[in-house]
Amino acid sequence: MSNEVNVATQRKLTNKERMKIPRHPMPEQDPLERAKNFLEVPIGYTPEMAMEEAERCLQCKNAKCVEGCPVNVKIPEFIYHTAMGNFELAAQKLKETNALPAVCGRVCPQEDQCEAVCTIGARVEPVAIGRLERFVADWERASGKINLPDIPTPSGKKIAVIGAGPAGLTVAGDLAKLGHSVTIFEALHKPGGVLVYGIPEFRLPKKIVEAEVTYLERLGVRIKCDFVVGMTQTIDELMTEGGFDAVFIGTGAGLPYFLGVPGENLNGVYSANEFLTRVNLMKGYDFPNKADTPIPMAKHVAVIGGGNTAMDAARTARRLPWTEKVYIVYRRSNVEMPARKEEIHHGEQEGVEFLLLTNPTRFLGNNGWLVGMECQRMELGEPDASGRRKPIPIAGSEFTLNVESAIVATGNGSNPLINKTTPGLQSNKHGNIIADDEGKTSREGVWAGGDIVIGAATVIKAMGAGKKAAKSIHQYVMSKAV
Amino acid sequence: MFQILEKNDLAAKVFRYVISAPDVARKAKAGQFVILRLYDEGERIPITLADWDSDAGTIILYVQAIGKTTIMMSLLKAGDSLADVVGPLGIPSHVEKGKTLVALGGGFGIAAIHPIVRAHKQAGNRTISIIGARTKELMLMEAEMRAISDEVRIATDDGSYGAKGFVTTVLKKMIEQKEPMDVILAIGPVIMMKAVADLTRPYGVQTLVSLNPIMMDGTGMCGACRVVVNNKMQFACVDGPEFDAHLVDFELLVARQKMYSPQEKISLDIFEKICQSQEQRETAAW
Fold first, then answer.
1. Facing residues of A364 across strands?
2. What is the number of other CB atoms lying within 10 angstroms of the CB of residue B169?
3. How far apart are CA B19 and CA B81, in angstroms?
């Protein structure tokens, strides 16, 4: 990436002229090529592409995009600097409110957030805000010109953050910038949470997560891995013996749901969490040469579910050299699919086959190993409680899908370790911790946010919750008598 | 990093390690385990805690070198470090006072019963340990078990020490002779735990086993370690590892332990080839 872009003054364009510039497509790896590798699918804008795309922004005074963003990134400002070719300033603007821009530029559903409310979107395609965010964050990382904000004198307050996922990293970054001493406790051996165990390399390269984590460490955040709060120490122990003034719980939604149909414990049936963790966190795609963690070696794979995790699992399976066929098995139609359109489209391009209106009823085994999946065709009836049309089985439509591997990606519940070991911490019937708008829980000095509160959702929603909690924690610790 | 402070080569490819892991040692309780990783790119493997010293910040693990990771671990020396040790994990063993415990340990399963027997002893319970090995020279932890047991009974497959036969042979005789016992604990290979469950079921004696399915994260996140107990899916890492032996689906456990057998063999073969060529090179250099 070239750093030598001429810093020009912004061209004087009329709004009409700006809207005439077509939205710049994202250059991508060829689908047939990328289905054989784990390299990132989008290649990224060049500086020229970014500057041109940035000129499409009308610099609205009443910027709806900012409100559309869960962490309120100063979108018109960072895009203004981008259009001017001043990427360093653009990056600083981004980081004022977003600690993980390179991540968000890749995994946020911009089409439902900032870009959904973009003013020009009513007439032409909206400004590619996500792609610009990604470009600016990548440019900054490649340039090495990573500026640290001024950090105030230490406040003397200690804050414990449980879980180094999107919510926890955001809370930690915001509180460190305010001068607090922050320690993140992470159960796994690497920080990042779902960013490292769940989202695959080809969608979010792990070196990007590492760079964002390094930035937090430079802000003074301490990260203690291999530490399971609830087991290694409880929240009460952290607050009494550990001397932490406040605790934030951001443990995510990490308890896999299974289907409850016969044969689910056959060898070859996995949770998406297990499959993705083996491949991503444990680098199973390098087994047996570089990595020691084995992964399933099936020719025919069915992924059950229609969310982003299901797409990640299917596209991951597709890339394993021994895999011949990968199916997405989803009980509703493509209209109801919760996955991002882009992910579905990428999966289709890479050769994932979609079996829609299809529901597994039984796993078939031979000697303890999965050999097939009995499925049933479905049709859509009246809308159910979720507002989506309810799938109804079609009698006599059963058929067998021959697969040796089935990956269950039908959602995650909340991990009960913290709830069980923290007296007085209230949770709902699903095990989600109850927290108010600021993230305050029923326990004094304890906040929670992200999937552990709202159930499995998105990276950016977890980050939004983290931002609010950080603000609230700051007020709390500063008001506490010394 | 977690430094190995001591390493002993015991019988039958079993090694004893004293490892610095202060956070684990501080909170460890009988029946719990850790997950360790040797290096980056290494796999995560669960090992039951055999002992710990919370003041010294150390834990003791017994590991049998049978797969790539455990063989690599057997090549480490005192002073070397492990990349990760996380724990303590799992629900601690439930110790009820006023009971007589009969604990069976087969092979390096003795390491796993050790802290549980001690917890019972400390609670004032009567403890009888039945420990077994193929032959006398391979018997592990006899002195340690004697120190915490009211009685130790020995079984060897070849009869070279104690009773000839398995630990279950000894238990069967005790049951037949109506020796008083309230709780039976069996830890070892699945086939041994299943044999104990089958033996005690008709007598209705409370029987506990500690299950060792394949695990990855050890915190309930992946579901690799799912077992079926009383017809219900349970995760051994967070719902166990200790379960009522009479309700465990052992056949499923045996099948699921073979989940990655083909891959484990590939991994081990490659590793052994590397070791061989290295040996040849070293021999050639001489």
1. A372
2. 17
3. 8
**Percentage of residues of chain A with pLDDT beyond 70:** 97
Distance of alpha carbon B275 from alpha carbon B270, whole angstroms: 9
The answer to whether the CB atoms of A265 and B252 lie below 8 A apart is yes
User: Contact at 8 Å (CB) between A57 and A80?
Assistant: yes
Chain-centre distance of CA A233, in angstroms?
27
Q: What is the largest CA-CA distance in chain A?
A: 72
What angle, rounded to 10 degrees, do the helices at A47-54 and A75-83 form? 120
A193, A164 contact by CB (below 8 A)? yes
Is pLDDT above 60 for A12?
A: yes
Per-residue pLDDT at A1: 41
Query: B146 pLDDT exceeds 70?
Result: yes
Both tokens of B251, joined, read 């056949």
Cα radius of gyration rounded to whole Å, chain B: 19
Instruction: Give the angle subtended at the CA of B212 by the CAs of B206 and B218, to the nearest 5°.
Output: 115
CA-to-CA separations, B15 to B8, B88, B106, B110, in angstroms, rounded:
6, 20, 16, 13
Asked if A290's CB is within 8 angstroms of B41's CB, the reply is yes
Q: What is the pLDDT of residue B268?
A: 85
Pairing of strands B58-64, B14-20: antiparallel
| The token pair that represents A133 in the structure block | 């965010």
Q: Number of A:B CB contacts under 8 A?
A: 117
A455-465 mean pLDDT: 87
* Closest by CA position to A223, among listed A263, A255, A276, A181: A181
Q: Where does residue A308 rank: exposed (0-12), middle (13-18), buried (19+ CB within 10 A)?
A: buried
The answer, for B265 touching chain A at a CB cutoff of 8 Å, is no
- Of A253, A239, A245, A255, which Cα lies nearest the Cα of A422? A239
pTM of the model: 0.92
Residue A156 touches partner B, C-beta closer than 8 Å: no
Within 13 Å and on the Cβ side, how many CA atoms surround A223?
26
Q: Which residues pair with A231 in a beta bridge?
A: none
Q: Residue B90's closest chain A neighbor by CA?
A: A231
Residue B230 DSSP SS3: coil
Which amino acid, residue A451? D
C-alpha to C-alpha distance for A3 and A264, rounded to whole angstroms = 53
d(CA A417, CA A468): 24
Q: Helix A272-279 vs helix A308-319: angle between axes, to the nearest 10 degrees?
A: 50
Q: Which residues of A touch B262 (CB under 8 A)?
A: 297
Residue A6 in this model has a pLDDT that exceeds 50: no
Q: How many residues does chain A have?
A: 482
